[in-house]
Amino acid sequence: MPGSNEMSHSDQMLGSPTTPQGSTMLRGNATARLRQVFFPCLLGTLLSLGTLLPFNASSQVDPVGSERQSSYVLMSSDTKAMQDDPTLNPATFAVLDGQVLWQEVAGKKNQSCSSCHGDAAVSMKGVAASYPKVSATGQLLNLEGRINQCL
Amino acid sequence: MTIDRRTFVMGVAAVSVLPSLNAFATVDDATQAVDKILSGQPAKVGRVTLEIPPLVENGNLVTMKVSVQSPMTEADYVRAIHIVAEGNPLPNVVSFFLSPRSGRAVITTRIRLGDSQRVRAIAQMNDGSFWQGDAATLVTLAACTEV
Amino acid sequence: MSKTSRTIVTMPATAKKGEILEVRIIVQHDMESGFRHTETGQRVPRDIIRDFRCTYNGAEVFRVELHPAMGANPLIVFTTVATESGTLEFKWSGDNDYASSTTSSLTVT
Question: Given CB 3.0 to 4.6 Å as the disulfide criterion, which of A141, B52, B64, B124 pairs with B135?
Answer without folding.
Answer: B52
